[in-house]
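Give me the 3D structure for Large ribosomal subunit protein bL33.
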Amino acid sequence: MRTRITLECTECKNRNYNMTKDKKAHPERMETKKYCRFCKSHTLHKETK
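Predicted structure for Large ribosomal subunit protein bL33 (49 residues):
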């Protein structure tokens, strides 16, 4: 089953993206570089609770 997660910008702490992921295949927290419209640049986004 896929669960919904929220990605938060590490620079400005805004929650920008909603995604789904498979908890069985990837139990660790997700980190990816995505565009932040508030910082106006590509920054590291981490999964929040």
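The beta strands are 2-9, 15-22, 31-36, 41-47. Let me know if you want a second pass.
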